[in-house]
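Re: export button greyed out
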Amino acid sequence: MLKVYGLFLVSGLAVGSLYALAGIGLVILRRSTGFLNFAYGALAAAAAMVAWQVADWGAWPPISWLSALATGIVLSVAYGRILAPALAWREPAVKAVATLGYMLVLLGLMGLLWDDALRKLSLPPDKIAVTLLGVRVTVTRMIALGVAIAAVIAMILYLDRSRMGLNMRALADDRDHAALLGIPIVRVETLAWGISGALAGGTGLLFGSLVRLEPTVITFMVIPATAAAIVGRLTSLPMTLLGGLLIGVIEAMLTLYKPLAPLRAMTPFVIAGLMILWMQRGTSLTFASKD
Amino acid sequence: MKLQITLVTGMAALCLSVLSSTAAQADDGAPICGLNTGQAASGTPIKVGGINGNAPPGDFSGGTDGAAAYFDCVNANGGIHGRPIEYIVENDQWNPELAGQVATKLVKDENVVALVGNGSVVEMAVNASLYASEDVMVMASGCAISECYESSHIVSTNQGPLPSGIGALKFAIEELGTTHAACIGFNIPNNGGWACDWMNEYMASKGLQGTSILMDPTAVDLNSVYLQALAERVDTILLMLPAGPAIGLLKVAEEQGGRELFKWVSPTPLYEPGVGEVLGDYWSDNLYINIELNEFSSDGADNQNWIKVMDRFGKDGDRRDTFSQSGYVSAKFFVDALLKLDAENIDRPQVTQAIQNIVGVESDLLCDPYYVGEADRHMPNHAGRMVVFKNGDFELVRDCYDIDTNYLEPILAQETALGLN
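Workaround output, generated via the alternate export path:
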């Protein structure tokens, strides 16, 4: 029985690391610009589809991988430079809903560009594997986990120790004051959208290879990713990583309990809900607002 | 004697001439449709509807594509005694509300005489009562849910997951030694739940074991689904899924060396052009698929005519899958039924009656004669073929065979009443 649990643990960690990676991209952007980007999954999906398309045209594989990152960056920065500034002073909810619109636009475009034919996105590490706890783990799965951990460490160091990281944190705290202090808002925000877009591109590439190359499925990965980000209270990168991994592992483990197995898709919502309740503990609901 | 020799020689020459003329006609690539006059129909159009579901997560438009191409061919060849068919196709976009709206538009506003080629996972459940109350028949082509087979006014040419899945299991039990099969399907009661429950019942009726593994359609963690089958200690996996998720699951299984651990069978969805390129060599000789209609490469007259119809009258991007074959056959049987009516007085009641009168018509695309009749449920197609995935293509391993599930009892009784058994 221990071996069976081990199988599901390893499996859950792999998918969970993708949720975590996407959650990290969401948190970085949220911390720097105030945007909770619900179009994040669509960016990842578009990146995966472009990578497949470039590979299908016969390009050298690294070109197709780079095209995924480039697609994520371009689509993310395009939104950040063209639409986001107009919403900079709006409420967080309005900003988030606006990204939903972008998600629908991207989904529609993908439907227009790529019909419902069968496709497969393969990466070279898919063919290499090691046996861990009785389950064969491909190098792609290990890369997903490694990239998620590396992204957390790199971004913590970058945000805490670099000048640009400081600018990003200042911008997230108070956009007006940051502008008064002379922080180059456009440059900082563009960088944040770019980093988040690159992470979306990488996540899409890994997701397309590990799970499924279907735009809709990848697009709605934003749900567990958002849940992971909520576990990190939309600020903490290590907690987001933990949240993503937790969602992946619990989702996998529920498979072993038959009555709940068909309801595994609820896992992100339940965990996010529990986390919100935990964060709200000790506060009482009143009709008076703080304002 | 000399006269007899001359006559015989003359007859032989005439036969040869006719044969060579027919062969030439068959070889010239021209499809044969309806009256086959070569003259375009120009009378008052006869309105016919069709509803497909074409949006993420799947494209079920093959049935209406096949039917539309055949109707265009019929219209270019005399129509229904001079009257063309005006085929109005709507897309329900997998949205139940929209499915109800487009059906109401077709049935009540456009006043179509029938619907042909429907393919959807949504619209049959929403509209079955509308079709019955308005007494309009639906000759569907892409059904996947129970309501489609258990309604008085819907008859589908395709089998759907239940017979095709059990057909695959029957083959697995008889040829691969299956004793415990996992049915992996979507957690949708009238789709995966329905088909997998009957699969389990079928296994039990053979003294064997069946296990349902139902997953949410949006679940991304296919590895856990695969591992669940591993934990259940089954020996066979039946992929009761659309092609996309099924391919995803096979990819996960390939990572885990699943080819050696299980026998792999599937109903029709995996029999689709393009599967070979996506699957690669790993699954060669290890993936068995039940097909509801005939092989895409079959030399049968109807299959060859379907190819010609699609080549000549299909549009760029039209699907050429099992649903398309099914749409072609549905449209062909529908046109044949209409041609028996007085063209000038065609109305819905007459068309409904004409469709219900269809009994025992045949096509090489189907294993058994097709029929409709008046009944609370319809499933004329419940015999199929089995292919194995081999070297990037498919190879026939068992020709037409029936399945023997208890689900078919009322269907078989109906066939007996119609004199088909």
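The radius of gyration of chain B is 23 Å. The button fix ships in the next patch.
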